[in-house]
Amino acid sequence: MKTSMIALAFAAFATAGFAHASDAPTAATEGQSGAAQMQQWNASQSGTMQKTRAEVRHELVQAQQDGKLPRLNSLYRGS
């Protein structure tokens, strides 16, 4: 029984590893002559500015007053 469970777990991990490896772009598929370049997300490059606590609090009060927050809460409750 344990042997079959171990074999099943190994097969599942191996399949997931192959699926993950096949998602990686290669230089040939992207038309690049060199090595594929990896690009990471960076908060400073996203173009958004960080907000202060006062700005976030002001947005929260505005959302409560104009009814946006209660509407979102009702959507997530499913009512």
Would you give an account of this structure?
Residues 22-53 are annotated as: Disordered. It is a single chain. The chain is elongated, with a radius of gyration of 24 Å. The chain has a domain at 53-79. The model has no long low-confidence stretch (mean pLDDT 74). 61% of the residues lie in helices and 0% in strands. It contains four helices and no strands.
DSSP helical segment count: 4
How would you sum up the major sheet?
Answer: none
Straight-line N-to-C gap: 46 Å
User: What is the helical fraction, as a range of percent?
Assistant: 55-70%
If you average the pLDDT, what whole number results?
Answer: 74
Beta-strand proportion: under 5%
Contiguous uncertain segments of 5+ residues: none
Q: How many strands?
A: 0
Shape: elongated
The radius of gyration over CA amounts to 24 Å
Which sequence of SSEs, written as H and E, runs from N to C?
HHHH
Main structural class: mainly alpha
Outline of the structure:
With 79 residues, the protein is mainly α.
Furnish the topology, listing elements before pairings.
Blueprint: H1 2-22, H2 27-30, H3 53-65, H4 68-77
Please give a handful of descriptors for the protein shown.
79 residues, mainly alpha, 4 helices
